[in-house]
Amino acid sequence: MSKFLLVFCLLMFQTAFAEFALANTPALKIGLVLDKGGKDDKSFNSAAYAGAKQAEKELGIELKYVEATDNNSLETLHRNFAQKKYDLVIGIGFAQTDAIKKVSALFPETKFAIVDGEVTAKNVRSLLFEEHEGSYLVGAAAAMKSKTGVVGFIGGMDIPLIRRFQKGFEAGVKSVNPKATVLVSYIGVTGEAWNNPAKAKEIALSQISQKADVIFHAAGASGSGLFDAASDKKIFAIGVDSNQNWVKPGVVLTSMLKKVDVAVFETIKSVKAGSFQSGVNRFGLKDGGIDWALDENNKKLWSAAEIEKLNQVKKSIITGKVTVPDYYKTK
Question: Quick one: 29-129+261-283 is in which CATH superfamily?
Answer without folding.
Answer: Response regulator (3.40.50.2300)
